[in-house]
Amino acid sequence: MSIELVDLPLLHDTPTDSTSEKLSLKPHSFPALTSASGTSSKMPSPSEIERESIVDSLHIEEIDPLTYRSTRLWIPINASDSHARQGQALDASQSTSLTSSDSTSALGKYPIIYRVEKLRDGKSYVTRSVTASQHGQPIFMVTCSFTLPTPARFPQPSFREPMPLGIPLPMACQSEEERWTKYLSTAKAARLHPGARHSLEAYIMERDSSPVAIREVPRDTEFWFEDDDASEEKKAADKAAETKWDGSVAGKVNFAARARAVQAAASSDQSVKQVKRKMERHERMLWMKAKDDNVASLDNNYQKSILAYLSDFQFIGTAAQATGLSQNSNPKLGMMASLDHVVYFYSNDFKTSNWLLHVITSPRVGDGRGVVEGRFYTEEGELVALTVQEGVVRATAAEPKKDKSVSKAKL
Known about the structure:
Blueprint: E1 2-7, H1 54-58, E2 60-64, E3 67-70, H2 84-97, E4 112-121, E5 125-134, E6 137-147, H3 176-184, H4 187-190, H5 194-209, E7 212-216, H6 232-243, H7 255-263, E8 283-290, H8 300-310, H9 317-323, E9 333-345, E10 356-366, E11 369-378, E12 383-395, H10 404-410
Antiparallel strand pairs: 1-6, 1-9, 2-3, 3-4, 4-5, 5-6, 7-8, 8-10, 9-12, 10-11, 11-12
């Protein structure tokens, strides 16, 4: 199944950040900044913060058989829209398919109305179009394509791009909250502009209250990929394991576990390519999951809605990271917003209460736009979904360089 979300023109009252120039941290060192005015308003204590429920964030109510309404929207700090739109729209479309592209910023003070149109009801494929409107104005459209599982009597060939090897497990990576709390205690943080420090403190609070856990893989991690010319013995073993698969997670080939097993003997095992490298500037890897373990009991369709929700966190920001645009660069990062967002699902057997690795790359940025691509893997190395997003990545006008010779002459 796949979903595609398409952006529409921005609402006139979409909030913007007019004080971003006062922030002095580097690009995407933390992706969501508050619209800090430079004043130090009192931050709430951790005990005063209530963690958002991902189920509440994605909940919709049925108004009529093809019309739904959001009941709650959670908007990250300094973001002009809600990440819940993707998951809520997918949930609405799935609700209509069981019986037979990205967007304008969503404002937190108005509910979103989702209207579903049945485009196709085939024997194997079903297509739905969802139009979301808020405060009387369309804000985005979604096209969803669903397919029935392949019958066991008609097995189809399969291929997956392998998960990178050498990636530290989730709990070996720092959470965003831990990473930036630790940063605030450094001498470098002590030199921050008060507005920037306030923004960072607010971001830490946001991460505490967010329904999504994020642990970024350190950028100096050395990783590699399994050689395409794997030994015939290993290929035969994999084929036999997949042939015997009974449909359970436990019966799948555990690519990551197998990779760890051969890593110790890599010098004598020629099936693993020992060409290690670190992440380039246009790459990012994030371990992600829903913080609420109770979502494990939700059905497969809801797991996909949650994954669509996860896929919007720190995604298009990788395109800005690729160019070096930031609040400190010259020119500065002026605007970053989603234009469209596509998710392709290739598994009905994953849980968003378990850690998923989003491997992101930005192959092209230019003309004020950028594209990012992603792959979601389970800890076992199973590729369950692919993601693509295009967004606005726009720089402000470059500031004129100061003439040092004139300054010296004045002295």
